[in-house]
Design a protein that fits this description.
The complex is a heterodimer of chains A (about 450) and B (about 500). Chain A is an alpha+beta fold and about 450 residues long. Chain A has helices at about 5-15, 75-90, 120-135, 205-220, 235-245, 250-255, 320-325, 375, 410-415; strands spanning about 20-40, 40-60, 65-70, 140-160, 165-180, 190-195, 220-225, 230-235, 275-280, 300-305, 310, 330-335, 340, 345-350, 365-370, 380, 385-395, 400, 405-410, 420-430, 430-445. Chain B is about 20% helix and about 40% strand. Classes of the chains: A alpha+beta (about 450), B alpha+beta (about 500). Strand 2 (about 40-60) of chain A pairs parallel with strand 4 (about 85-90) of chain B, so a sheet runs across the interface.
């Protein structure tokens, strides 16, 4: 792919020749490799080097057209600009997106950083060894059907016809392991873990292996659970999955589209237990995938969403901010209709709980490690969920794996039923969050 | 034309000029050379997949078009096999140099070295181009699809209809996309094939609210190979259906969790077979040892009343393709006959690794994915019962009229959501229910699908798996499941 300066120069030249006065371009290049192994042998190794850009063109009537293309040479960009110009005739007449007022402001963010990629043979060796160790962790572990070790360099840029020009680059490396057991007369069980870091050297492969083994082994002695209402502890992964599934609660575009569980009037109201505080923080020190600007060029920043149970902010694009008399927050995803999305959640508590709890002494509590099939079991516009999960019934501190079961409820009720937020936070790819204790959720087993 | 006795050192000097905007016979020479280079380096098999996409989506919200988004994509991927191992490298750079660079990377990943500068590079003798794209008027499809203006007009008219039909509307959307794709496959066994696919879908997303009660209902229809698809959309019927469903669900009670017999409606109800069995018959699952059916070919895995197919041939069906993404013509594959497992779905890698013959099932979302064994149009065949037979056999159970999505895990446990459900009491529907999720274990549930009605219907869907998101059809007649766990409140 051409470098950003070249793309910018081509875009300006082509726009000029097409009579386009106002345009912007955001794009990315990705150079990545991933490996999988199966019983000590490489299974499928993948590598990719690709690029794509999105161009927006405003016409004389100030309606906007958009085109995405993977062809970023002169011919490709010219065709994309022409297509966007054609599409602009059919652009929305109301709430037309415009350049972000912050597209040229200073970035107060860490510098971009790429780390050298490891040899693919090194990735394979690491994963082969890890697979062998995982299978050796317990006789019942018969395989690691899902595994992967990957590295990725990603570069992004944003530029516009008024002189904005931003770019950043990040490296990341990740591993996932998902092992499966086989025992005579017993159902197969499985569990997995995931780790991400900037580079292979920093990647916690050992921790991922250990977590996968421990979880898988802990599910061997599974038991059915009696259906009913239970006190539930949600892991960081489980809570963040639900928070993400119901992110329309604080998504300004969803609010404006009447497709949110919130309304404009919800700001300042109590939507959760006073124990809960949530921020979205793309620049969080623990966020490997830091993003310093959004697709409109707006700098990212820490945005408090829920402060001690009170909804304090929506996440904005420049367009939603303008309509709701707020500031852009750096959460825009470019498109003919600009959408809004979160970066990295930080869940914490600043309130003093009335009572503390511990899984070491818990009695008849369900600890949910992971919720599944959110695309099927979440009714985001209704607030309800009914989801299969991996977890344990904890009785007198002892954990017994739960056979196939679902957890169901209303997310707004769940937020208000939080009775305790543990102090120690856990890092996940989507954010950082402690375990969350919730009273009275419906569990369906037998 | 390049010399047939090409020396490796001459490769950098070659100047191939394949047609940029069309995958025609001008691609033969560069691909023949590259495939030969891969084989000369020691690869057992090499395959190139080239793709061009012209995609557009359109969104109508209330009474305005709020998004028209074209997307233009071009890219290629090269897959190299050495023994049972393989690797896949993709790139946007479709010049000879770019494709050669991708090939070299793939070879190096497998520990293969390019031949010495003095070595001959034997070109692969590719077959005559099997040009599926030149049949059935496919070359003209893109030009004959709805224009941007027409897309907007139709969606706005359809959305106005929804406003007339539905009550307590909070948000109404009509969405459309058109995915035009041209592909070219060239492989070291001589395969040289081209196709054009045209996939379109249109539908509604309706949110109704009254007080604290809410109901959201989606309806999507889709088809392949029909440039007139959007023009012929029967939106009035879909609007009435969506409005009726939302009205029923708005004030529905939450389902009481437990184990029930259920009756699943036809068409999209077929997602139960897709998740509970279809995925587990793909060789990608056999390879991973994540299918409980791996060693059960010829054995009974389902109720004797159940027969199921996967095929890519039904006219206009969402999962229909003339050739798969490995250049193989598709076929009709009998999966289960009267409960007996007959066949698996296999792609090239699956065939190499498991021995199951290829079925024209190698599919992928795009050039960034290697093909994998995937479903096409998958459905339970019609049975001998009537819908009345099914309902009359249920004393207390649940009628799952409209299914949501689902998934299956590595242990064969599956789940899927129900968008529209009703309580059945003594064979009769008595009240609407919401919030149901069905969970089960594949091996057990297949034996509990005990009755199939005669009203087979197909529905368009999207399937996500190892090679990305692809278009599929699910389908079935009304069926009865003797018992299944229903998660609710």
């Amino acid at each position: 792919m051409s470098d950003v300066a070249t793309i910018a120069a081509i875009a300006k030249e082509k726009a000029q020749s097409l009579g386009i006065q106002k345009f912007d371009v955001c794009g990315s290049t990705v150079d990545e490799a991933s490996v999988q192994v199966d019983q000590g042998e490489p299974k499928q190794v993948k590598a990719s080097k690709r690029s794509s850009v999105m161009v927006r063109v405003w016409n004389e009537a100030n309606t906007v057209g958009v085109t995405t293309t993977s062809e970023v040479d002169e011919l490709g960009l010219e065709l994309a600009l022409k297509t966007a110009q054609e599409a602009s005739a059919f652009g929305a007449k109301e709430h037309v997106p415009d350049f972000s007022p912050e597209a040229t402001s200073d970035l107060e963010a860490p510098q971009s950083k790429l780390v050298p990629q490891a040899e693919i043979a090194t990735l394979i060796d690491n994963l082969v060894q890890t697979e062998a160790k995982l299978m050796a962790a317990h006789d019942a572990i018969a395989g690691v059907p899902y595994n992967g070790l990957a590295q990725r360099d990603a570069q992004r840029f944003y530029l516009n016809s008024e002189g904005a020009m931003r770019q950043e680059a990040r490296s990341s490396s990740s591993i996932y392991l998902y092992s499966k057991t086989e025992q005579e007369g017993r159902r197969p069980r499985s569990a997995g873990a995931y780790r991400v870091s900037q580079g292979l050297k920093q990647l916690d492969i050992k921790g991922c292996l250990q977590e996968t083994a421990e979880k898988t082994i802990s599910h061997l002695n599974y038991q059915p659970i009696t259906s009913g209402k239970y006190r539930v502890v949600l892991s960081a992964e489980a809570f963040l999955s639900l928070l993400g599934a119901f992110s329309n609660l604080f998504n300004a575009q969803s609010v404006l589209d009447n497709r949110s569980l919130s309304t404009v009037e919800s700001l300042g109201t109590e939507i959760a237990s006073s124990l809960l505080s949530v921020a979205d923080d793309a620049l969080h020190a623990d966020n490997v995938g830091k993003t310093t600007f959004d697709d409109e060029g707006t700098p990212t920043r820490r945005i408090p969403i829920i402060d001690q149970g009170v909804l304090t902010n929506f996440l904005h694009s420049s367009g939603t901010a303008k309509r709701l008399d707020a500031q852009p927050t750096g959460h825009a995803n470019l498109g003919a209709k600009v959408s809004v999305g979160p970066h990295f959640y930080h869940v914490f508590s600043t309130s003093t709980p009335e009572q503390t709890y511990s899984l070491e002494t818990a009695e008849n509590v369900v600890f949910i490690d992971d919720v599944q099939a959110l695309h099927a079991g979440v009714k985001a516009l209704q607030g309800s969920f009914s989801l299969p999960f991996d977890g344990w019934l904890v009785t007198n501190g002892k954990r017994v794996s739960v056979e196939s079961a679902t957890v169901a409820g209303d997310f707004r009720e769940l937020l208000k039923s939080i009775i305790y937020i543990e102090s120690e936070a856990e890092l996940t790819p989507g954010g950082i969050c402690p375990r969350i204790w919730v009273d009275e959720l419906s569990i369906t087993g037998e | 034309m390049s010399p047939t006795a090409l020396l490796s050192r001459e490769l950098p000097t070659l100047d191939y000029s394949a047609t940029r905007d069309r995958f025609d016979d001008t691609w033969r020479s560069p691909l023949s050379t590259l495939l030969g280079l891969g084989r000369a380096a020691g690869a057992d098999f090499v395959e190139f997949f080239l793709e061009r996409v012209n995609y557009i989506s359109c969104l109508a919200e209330e009474d305005a078009i709020t998004s028209i988004s074209p997307r233009l994509v071009a890219g290629a991927g090269v897959r190299v096999f050495l023994g049972k191992g393989d690797c896949y490298v993709s790139t946007n750079d479709m010049s000879f140099k770019g494709l050669k660079s991708a090939l070299e990377k793939a070879l190096s990943i497998l520990g293969l070295n390019l031949p010495s500068p003095q070595a001959f590079v034997p070109e692969i003798n590719l077959d005559l181009l099997r040009d599926y794209a030149s049949t059935n008027g496919k070359e003209a499809w893109l030009a004959n699809c709805s224009s941007m203006q027409e897309m907007g007009d139709i969606l706005l008219t359809a959305n106005a209809q929804l406003d007339k039909d539905a009550k307590h509307v909070q948000s109404r959307r009509a969405t459309y996309f058109r995915d035009w794709q041209e592909v070219l496959v060239a492989a070291s066994d001589g395969v040289f094939a081209r196709d054009i696919r045209l996939t379109q879908s249109v539908g509604y997303s309706l949110l109704c609210a009254e007080g604290s009660d809410r109901a959201s209902i989606n309806k999507r229809v889709g088809a392949t190979n029909n440039p007139n698809f959007l023009r012929s959309w029967q939106y009035a019927g879909d609007s009435a259906e969506v409005s009726e469903s939302a009205g029923q669900m708005l004030h529905a009670d939450y389902v009481e969790s437990g184990n029930y017999p259920i009756i699943m409606a036809n068409e999209f109800g077929g997602v139960i077979f897709h998740e509970a069995c279809g995925h587990l018959l793909e060789t990608t699952q056999i390879e991973r040892q994540t299918s409980p059916f791996s060693d059960m070919k010829g054995q009974k895995i389902a109720h004797e009343n159940l027969t199921a197919w996967d095929e890519g041939l039904s006219p206009n069906a969402f999962g229909s393709i003339d050739m798969d993404d490995e250049g193989m013509p598709v076929q009709r594959t009998l999966l289960i006959e009267n409960g007996i497992l007959k066949n698996f779905l296999s792609d090239r890698a699956g065939c190499i690794r498991t021995g199951h013959p290829r079925t024209g099932s190698g599919r992928r979302q795009s050039y960034t994915h290697a093909a994998a064994s995937r479903m096409r149009n998958t459905y339970i065949a019609p049975g001998n019962f009537t819908n009345d037979d099914l309902f009359n056999s249920v004393e207390k159970g649940i009628y799952c009229k409209k299914m949501g999505g689902g998934s299956v895990g590595p242990t064969g446990e599956f789940n899927f959501g129900v968008d529209e459900a009703y309580l059945i009491e003594n064979g009769k529907i008595t009240k609407p229910l919401k919030g149901a999720t069905l969970i089960g274990e594949a091996k057990e549930i297949m034996k509990r699908i005990s009755m199939s009605s005669q009203d087979l219907g197909l529905a368009a869907g999207f399937c996500g798996s190892i090679s990305g998101s692809i278009y599929v059809t699910v389908g079935q007649p009304h069926i009865k499941v003797d018992e299944i766990t229903v998660g609710g409140r």
